[in-house]
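Write out the 3D structure for:
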Amino acid sequence: MPNIDISKVSEIIKEVAADKIAPRYLQLGDGHIKTKSGPTDLVTIADEEAEIELTRILKDFLPGSQVIGEEAVSNGKAVRQDLQRSDDYFWIVDPVDGTHNFAHGVPIFGTMVALVRKGERIASWIFQIPKDRMIAGEKGAGIRIDGASFQPPPKPSDDEDFKNMKAFISRMFMPPTIRPYVDQQVTKMADASTHRCCAWEYIELMEGERAFSVYKRIEPWDHMAGVLLLEEAGFYVRKWDGQPYGGSDLSGGLINAPSEILWERVYETFLKEPLRANPPPGFAVR
């Protein structure tokens, strides 16, 4: 395993954000915003320029490594399946996570980077650009925020009533066979809203501001960096079918919970019934 200078990669990410992303905030002009899969799936010139720069620098930083970036996959220049079938080290890059917020002047966005090999998470970085706040983690070595060691706060009890809990339950990409049931169940929660930005949601979960999170769309650039941080903080992370998350199998979805017991409660309460009635294609029903 390579000896990665965590602080040096942090500086690389900060420098690219300062050069390619921050100057574009609130300054996007005509032709600087495009749509991808739909009207709310946006890409900006900042996404594209920052990913190109990070790809170049990170490949040089770790010779022989590869990069899988959100925009490269969208443009057909990279494939996420290489994460499992290649022995190479991969940098997974989301140059601007929370692009919709960034494009609409909402200061909730950031850069997410993870280093992985054959699906195993090695290190990760989340830079919350509007806060100038860097959160970095290394497998087995814990988490640091702006260079200072992070100690996870106490977790909610396994039998805590959902009505007293706040969580992130992302329903935007849930199919119509699942979403109405989940919409009904979230009324039991104190709060189940999202920021539309994993770079914010994973950190608030890690810091105890929310109890758990549920996602349907589980692209590696949205989740690999945050999952490593949660695992270092003692969370139980599994796909909806109970299998570990490796970033290339996108069937089902993801639940991040502070314990296995609470993970099971979340699955039973929000997903079990609709998934058994109408399992998504390729999904192994539990």
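The first strand starts at residue 33 and ends at 35.
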